[in-house]
Amino acid sequence: MVAEKNIQEFKAGDEIQGFFIVKKIERKLSSNNKNFLDLTIIDQTGEINGKLWDCQPGQEATSPAGSLIKLRGNVNEWKGKLQLKISLIRLANESDGKNIKDFVLSAPLKAEEMFDELYGFVQKIKNTDIKGIVDAIIMASKEKLMYYPAAKSLHHAIRSGLLYHILRMLRTGEKLSQVYTNVNTDLLFAGILLHDMEKLEELDSDELGIAEYSREGQLLGHISMGINRISKVGEELRADEEVILLLQHMVLSHHYEPEFGSPKKPMIPEGELLHYIDMIDARMYDMEDHLKNIKPGEFTQPIWSLENRRLYQSSL
Amino acid sequence: MVAEKNIQEFKAGDEIQGFFIVKKIERKLSSNNKNFLDLTIIDQTGEINGKLWDCQPGQEATSPAGSLIKLRGNVNEWKGKLQLKISLIRLANESDGKNIKDFVLSAPLKAEEMFDELYGFVQKIKNTDIKGIVDAIIMASKEKLMYYPAAKSLHHAIRSGLLYHILRMLRTGEKLSQVYTNVNTDLLFAGILLHDMEKLEELDSDELGIAEYSREGQLLGHISMGINRISKVGEELRADEEVILLLQHMVLSHHYEPEFGSPKKPMIPEGELLHYIDMIDARMYDMEDHLKNIKPGEFTQPIWSLENRRLYQSSL
Amino acid sequence: MVAEKNIQEFKAGDEIQGFFIVKKIERKLSSNNKNFLDLTIIDQTGEINGKLWDCQPGQEATSPAGSLIKLRGNVNEWKGKLQLKISLIRLANESDGKNIKDFVLSAPLKAEEMFDELYGFVQKIKNTDIKGIVDAIIMASKEKLMYYPAAKSLHHAIRSGLLYHILRMLRTGEKLSQVYTNVNTDLLFAGILLHDMEKLEELDSDELGIAEYSREGQLLGHISMGINRISKVGEELRADEEVILLLQHMVLSHHYEPEFGSPKKPMIPEGELLHYIDMIDARMYDMEDHLKNIKPGEFTQPIWSLENRRLYQSSL
Amino acid sequence: MVAEKNIQEFKAGDEIQGFFIVKKIERKLSSNNKNFLDLTIIDQTGEINGKLWDCQPGQEATSPAGSLIKLRGNVNEWKGKLQLKISLIRLANESDGKNIKDFVLSAPLKAEEMFDELYGFVQKIKNTDIKGIVDAIIMASKEKLMYYPAAKSLHHAIRSGLLYHILRMLRTGEKLSQVYTNVNTDLLFAGILLHDMEKLEELDSDELGIAEYSREGQLLGHISMGINRISKVGEELRADEEVILLLQHMVLSHHYEPEFGSPKKPMIPEGELLHYIDMIDARMYDMEDHLKNIKPGEFTQPIWSLENRRLYQSSL
Amino acid sequence: MVAEKNIQEFKAGDEIQGFFIVKKIERKLSSNNKNFLDLTIIDQTGEINGKLWDCQPGQEATSPAGSLIKLRGNVNEWKGKLQLKISLIRLANESDGKNIKDFVLSAPLKAEEMFDELYGFVQKIKNTDIKGIVDAIIMASKEKLMYYPAAKSLHHAIRSGLLYHILRMLRTGEKLSQVYTNVNTDLLFAGILLHDMEKLEELDSDELGIAEYSREGQLLGHISMGINRISKVGEELRADEEVILLLQHMVLSHHYEPEFGSPKKPMIPEGELLHYIDMIDARMYDMEDHLKNIKPGEFTQPIWSLENRRLYQSSL
Amino acid sequence: MVAEKNIQEFKAGDEIQGFFIVKKIERKLSSNNKNFLDLTIIDQTGEINGKLWDCQPGQEATSPAGSLIKLRGNVNEWKGKLQLKISLIRLANESDGKNIKDFVLSAPLKAEEMFDELYGFVQKIKNTDIKGIVDAIIMASKEKLMYYPAAKSLHHAIRSGLLYHILRMLRTGEKLSQVYTNVNTDLLFAGILLHDMEKLEELDSDELGIAEYSREGQLLGHISMGINRISKVGEELRADEEVILLLQHMVLSHHYEPEFGSPKKPMIPEGELLHYIDMIDARMYDMEDHLKNIKPGEFTQPIWSLENRRLYQSSL
């Protein structure tokens, strides 16, 4: 019997059908000289590889990466991994009544709610020059901020990922300022809000959160672009020179090490904190993500983004 | 008129007297072949260099480093720095009624209060094996913990410095666990409480917080010593093997980089957080300390412990 | 005619049969969508890859890695390498009268003889505390020591490899102490005997010498585990503190560089020698192993474990 | 007899007098507790250290660093170096009729002539947007450019040093474009003209070429400042976006390595050339400068700015 | 209709025939267990991959790498790349009247003309000892120099590549000596002429410019071989010792960094220039080569030899 | 009473006289403007600093570094170190009947005996080409080899140090070849004998073992010089090319890492052993030397040549 299931629920032996997004599609030639399609499909719960044997040249173009498809197939186990043998595939059409956004992996909170909470932090800034610059930049970028991923790499490519990252950093920043009470929260919140904002221009992303570097992103990078932006907005608002300078310095130094893109290290405590808050949020996200399917007492495979560490799922 | 002042209050032209601790003392030979004493003295507010011209051979031994002295002298300015020309110096005696501890730079909170707050975190640990190990180690080391500095380097050599460092880390750990709610606070608090505990054995410190490396400290270092200790206490308490292993892993990995002493990087999120909390607290302490006498709009000198960065005192 | 030959004797065109150990086995899908088995088999003389075309799903499970099989097939040359086209394969059974141990690559000396010679070095130790600790650890680990490989990597995965490595190091240590006569041979022999002993727990190995990292091995590593072990055994024997400390220091420092796992470098000459003796033995083994099939005047391929050097077989 | 000589002409035994610039001055205390002045003085031909014994406290303030003084003294040899024993010293006054600029080490060409030649290269730029941006920035900075040194370090602190550096780079760039004929000389000349222009703001220099980092220089550095400047001027001139982007990219990447301040490496051939032209000019200057007083067949001392190399004066 | 085209002109759908050089050829087994040939062929305009399905074992030996073949086939597009499906292939024979040299990618200038220009620089050397050594080495190596590639890597493997590289460096050296007029052009030209001359012995290359390392090349490398050569030739000519020494020093130091093969850094300005001239020429060649097929406004793929930079084709 | 003692026997309070070698001598100016001599003197047992107050300008030239002097003075303790207050000093003269060589720190064995043992190893070489090259080089350098130090640094500057170093390495090499029996002892002994032979030309040393780099040593270094030498001698003897090549390769690679001067790593086992034997001997010498005056249970100061390790004197 054909079942409608999320990818996470697939089991070997299932015959399944349903709607999925094409993440990658390629036509390949088998060694007996026949064409077949090699696809990776995703929904909100996971991803799986599938093959459609004996396809036609050009068929790969009818359901390109990023499109919503309807698909039927059989789930097999192959070297310990599930794989789909696809029997039918077609592009979703209007009469299916499906919205592609419902099939994308997104941040765990709604974009609107995240933005409201984030904007609350803008309003907590007391220095009017700082607040003015941050407000102008955030509002000008709001549309993209609502859906952009946090990074190009597939791994972080979740819808609204950047917004989620900034928001958690703001929460962490507020907590830390309760322990380190000398910290200037105006600078700290502003630094967090602005630090990655030019990723919205460094990457060209579609609504699904799949991103590529832009020309400006390649030649300058989001840090230099951020310096330019703060300079420009700050001058338009005739903001205090020290304010402009410190916000630029925080963005410039937040990657900390030259080889990661920061020509200067933080020279103010708020810049130092910004860096560590950024690291903590990225690492907690990565670790949680890699450990989510690991059983207690077991290790993950070596993880590239964590210097090839293997993580351990404690049984405590 | 002879004034009794804290070192911080000295001004060029003052004639002062009072009680101070000798931090460093050396007899030197002037180039006209005469002996003089070269001293550094401290009180709770700062430190200053002084000279006693025409001393006797052996006089340096009558008020050795670490002793409380009574001293009279004149304050001069020398290359933009104040310096004492000492006229009289003698060891403090019983009839002076002074307690040397009142002259040492100490953590800003009372040791007893800090320990009580710290011990509250021990009691928050729910896993009885973790709690048992932590409790045993903390209580066995309590006496030293009350006064030990956090590091050998003069800079951190404040009385009860280690206690203060651990306490602020616990506060930070608790705050972060409110944002990253998946974190196992038992492991995190235990990791924070234990991570530097063997510094109490790696360093031989006196009550004034001036420390030297012990033989075991040189040959093994506090991390390996910590591994041994957890292993031993854990076995005595017949604690769960996984608990012993994870506590050891957190201590082992908390310096993060091999070249800083950690042969393994954290493989559990709690270990990752432990590292960043340690870094944040050390850096916030260092930065605050170096910036405290800097005027808005000015930079510090290059700071060795911060990779020769100069820090900036913002005017905001 | 079907010949019974060692793998080393195979020639293109042979039809062979015999008993072999499965080192790796995988079912793969050909591009015309058929199943085939891809095997690597070994005996004491070498290893070879083979294919069984048109197998059944699940057939790979009937002769898993580590099992002894009987096999028939034809030897072909494929890109300058020999390969087997397998016609028959089955698990060895009792009536075959074969012992799997006779088919594993082993150290060139018998385990019992190696152990006896090694134990002779234990008896040469004059300091009773050192001797006691070493004796206790060696005897407790004797069973595993008899067959464990020296490393996880396939390359060193010969039966009794660790025993062979330690023995040659002891011989070298004795020779060097005849030139550098100030060296304390008690410490040196003990350091050699103990330095890798916890590899027996860091790795889970079967009798065939195929190893995987254990949980404790991943989270702590054999060096930290060795520190723990010496500490525990030393305390049980109420050994002199200096003895415990120096043995721990030698184990801790024997990898020399932090990035290879040693947080401290050797601070005693015996530790320095231990490191170089370890290096020499590993390198001589590696070089001999890679050069053994190379003709005079030719170079090996780049060798990963030797920083991608190519070795040269001299014609002298 | 008192002679008036250039520093380069001093010989041991001379009694000299003349006008010099104070480069460094400090009051020091001798070990017999007397004040003396320790000065370094310069003229266009070199520098020499001198002592004025038995000075008054405060006397160091009467002829501060950067002032022109009249001085009399005796030249002695001290450890193979000449040194002055100063007998008289006073500030130059109006009636002396001396101009301090005549006593400063300057680039070997006149600033006006160098600027004219440099400006000729601006006029060679054919692309009007590139030319417009370069022209605007050069003309706005012309005043400072006429006298600024090329670097803070004393070594390069020659008057008009930056102008000289840029000019020789332009000459080299033109020569290279005759060999590598595909190079876009508009971009190359513009890159050379702009690459260090914000050093004029990164450093606060006086007319004598003695420089200190500015606040903005410390917090952002001349590369980020240059990015801002090009962005601003380019937008004011409504220049082509590609032009602005490429000029920014060349400035951003001209230090080549992240640890020297360039977050991006050159992605266009003109940027690659800019880097190497910069290196060649700096190195040729440094080498010529260090070799100028070395005899054929001899080596210099190790030179810090050349990774402690010693240079060799060939006898060919 | 079958067309005769250069590889660069191939389009999907073409049926083509013509003469090409085999760069790589391998027989492979398809997963349905059939043999096919996998070839890469080149002509002066480019390279393309092709397959000949259902070949015979041994057929790969009939047209080995380096041979000139006649071939017929169909051009397909495969994953955005063109590929040949080969129908006929045979070795070119005498009656075809083709010269293999006409099908190899060569430097853009004729070898004879390049050599004449190069030799003109030898004649510009005024110092007779320098000239003698250079002349002897160049003339002894002339035959190989006429056709050798500049490097082993496929990328530079153009016929007469080394000659072209040296020539452009000489032109650049002459230009630079017009700006840096203190430079000794005898040394500079000699250094350029000799710096890579032992690559002719380090690599064994055939007339097509396809190279492999020689035994001596592997064990010593072209730099040490060059030192030997200059020493030998110099002594035969009884040249001045200083001349021999400086020429050796320039060759020894021209890679600049120890990890690139230079145990010493340049200690004379001419050696410093030699290094930068070498870098500039290599980089300009590489960049031009990678950019030649890139459209304005687009980026190349990451380029390994340029530290994985992507290059940008400016639209200016 | 004036005692004649070795430096090692000096005690505070002694009045001593005797003959010593001047290692360093400088005239300095005290801050009360008087000249004094600052000397370091050595004998076979150690070294000590001394001062002669109120000397004459030029007096430092009457007993230059390297001369034998007669001296009288008083031993004082100064900051925990002994120091001499010199009352009389004069150059030793013929009538004193002293030989300067008796006052230099030398290797613990006689040069002649060491050379004989060393030459025995030459005679053990069976391959006549290898033996011929080694013999020729050793005999040509014998005179210098008898007294040269092993390194420029003061520390190793003992008379006949290089000879001693080579000899111990030969002993070690012979021992190791008894464990690693596949090693070609002809190559190994030859490699040891030749590896540092050009240090005799890289350094200009006097008979006392005090060395400076020669011109050739600076520009080429002893490794490249060794390559040249073997090449030259080998060709003169018409030795087998493989022999010449392998001896050169061993010398070239014996420093192992590019940053220590070896552009190639060893590609033959004998080269690998040569490197480790060199390391072991250097380290054992260094460690023994630094530990010789340290009491059991104590640490040395950080030692620069051992990466700032402190060594521990075990009490076992």
Automatic annotation (TrEMBL), chains A, B, C, D, E, F:
GO terms for biological process: rRNA 3'-end processing. Residues 163-282 form the HD domain. SUPFAM superfamilies: HD-domain/PDEase-like (SSF109604), Nucleic acid-binding proteins (SSF50249). Pfam families: HD. Keywords: Hydrolase. GO terms for molecular function: hydrolase activity. This is 3'-5' exoribonuclease. The lineage of its organism: Bacteria, Bacillati, Bacillota, Clostridia, Peptostreptococcales.
